[in-house]
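Help needed: design a sequence for this.
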């Protein structure tokens, strides 16, 4: 971490980082440590969660643009969380919280069921080598966890620049009984609430198409 990130970690995390009880691994979430969103954010408001928020560019931008919504950044990369807090603090955000945690465990143990209005997964690690694809986040098991935290009619937004991962997302989510497509044609239009991040820029520069997907949790 840079000096500024370390300072943000020390000074801002007491306000923004949700303290969590761990299991064995350092980014695990202990079973039974469900939060009460009204207490964490100090109000009841629509909740938007970004998984794998990286440096936080998308979520800081969105939280600034939508002060009426509560936002949660979920990330395992501590320097990214520190960078997010640094920017959120400079923007005087009080509607953003962060959790240092493994996303599937955050969905299973930290978030109450049917508490989330939108769940975002933008440019998840592609694990594009054939022998690594089984490490990908978006699987049938993950879809079931995502469905469990989304409210009825809640929205799942995804984006990737890897065509075979986009195809995998479509086959997993089309097969998930809790989700229905919220787009016509092969792909969703680009989500205009998504700012351009380095990952999207890198994919485009390499000549890859960016694929957006939007699904709705069945009522
Ligand atoms: C390719 S980066 C994209 C970051 C960001 N969404 C963007 O578009 O700039 C993927 C991010 O997902 C995070 N990540 C990977 N696996 C995760 C997991 N199991 N739980 C939480 N975050 C995870 C990584 O640390 C990384 O920051």
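Sure. Designed sequence:
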């Amino acid at each position: 971490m840079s000096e500024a990130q370390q300072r943000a970690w020390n000074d801002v995390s007491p306000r923004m980082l949700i303290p969590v009880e761990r299991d064995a691994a350092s980014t695990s979430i202990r079973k039974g440590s469900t939060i009460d969103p009204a207490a964490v954010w100090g109000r009841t408001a629509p909740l938007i969660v970004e998984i794998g928020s990286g440096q936080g560019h998308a979520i800081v931008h969105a939280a600034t643009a939508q002060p009426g919504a509560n936002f949660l950044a979920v990330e395992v990369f501590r320097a990214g969380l520190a960078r997010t807090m640094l920017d959120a603090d400079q923007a005087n955000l009080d509607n953003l919280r962060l959790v240092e945690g493994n996303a599937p465990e955050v969905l299973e143990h930290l978030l109450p069921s049917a508490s989330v209005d939108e769940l975002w997964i933008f440019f998840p690690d592609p694990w594009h080598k054939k022998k690594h694809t089984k490490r990908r986040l978006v699987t049938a098991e993950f879809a079931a966890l995502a469905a469990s935290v989304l409210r009825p009619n809640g929205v799942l937004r995804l984006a990737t620049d890897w065509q075979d991962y986009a195809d995998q997302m479509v086959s997993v989510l089309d097969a998930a009984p809790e989700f229905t497509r919220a787009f016509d044609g092969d792909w969703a239009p680009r989500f205009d609430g998504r700012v351009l991040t380095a990952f999207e820029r890198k994919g485009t520069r390499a000549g890859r198409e960016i694929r957006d997907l939007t699904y709705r949790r069945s009522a």
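The radius of gyration is 17 Å.
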